[in-house]
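yo, Histone deacetylase-like amidohydrolase is done. seq:
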Amino acid sequence: MSTGFFWDERCFWHGGGNFAGMLPVGGLVQPMASGGLPESPESKRRLMNLMDVTGLARELDLRHAPEATREDLLRVHPASYLDTFKATSDAGGGELGRRTPFGPGGYEMAALSAGLSIAALEAVLRSEVDNAYALSRPPGHHCLPDYPNGFCLFANLALAIQSARAKGLVERVVVLDWDVHHGNGTEAIFYEDPNVLTISMHQERNYPMDTGDFADRGRGAGKGFNLNIPLPPGTGHIGYIATMERIVLPQIRAFNPDVIVIACGYDAAAIDPLGRMLATAETFQVMTQQVKALAQDLCGGRLMMAHEGGYSEVYVPFCGHHVLAEMAGSDITAPDPFGEVFPLRQPNAAFDRFVDGVLDEMLAAL
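structure:
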């Protein structure tokens, strides 16, 4: 099996300015020793380091890609936004939206991040690789067409999908977003599109706090083709796998896509600073196993993932290694250093029954 891995060192050079966590430094907010936003390059770079050390990187098809062109970007983002972003980037950087600061060269780095996703999806659809993973940074699933949001400057996956559609490579696409935060940008872009089924399973009212409701099912021709699955904090491994089995996988099967695309965030992991969901590296591995098998049944194995959130520099590398080893069908492992502790911190049976009740209500309303 051939798994394409698309990455570029320059994506690690994107900077988020003088922040302490989610707060701008100043007043009573003291700078942190680590500096900057939680969306730092280190969790991604350390994933690359771990794959080098275990040898998994040598089993992947490592590739680079060019920046997304202006033509690519205009398929989602208006010219006014591109022009303002480029001018601000050339002038040394700034912030155009909500929690999206960038430095000089930020436009080019974001275009490169989008280019990695575009190339990864195209490689899958052209059967150059069996499946593919884009180590995109900055991430993309919060970005609206004209408004950057939540660390996201371009809508990476939406751009990849629209590029592939423009080239006649695909018609029906599922976007499954398991980042801990609602994929509001992807939802907004495809909200009226019946050929793109968007599914977001996220921590309820985490970020953005005003989007992600189960009742938001799409509009016009796209009615019924958007599915939000807001889950309670602390859902844990059993709850995530139950959500996949009872709701997500049947919905994807019913839609019968040409390709499955994953917004692959690791911030639902147990020690992530921006999430409270108690998922483990095994959780992400099992979910990958599930969608990989379903893709094999439905669409010739065509599966593509793009890296989204995940802010634990310690744990993201192990979660990502579990996912990529599963994608590649590799026997190489990076044992979870929290493999004994995190299972003991999972919710008890009473909470699992509560989550089952939440899922029952959603299923009854579908």
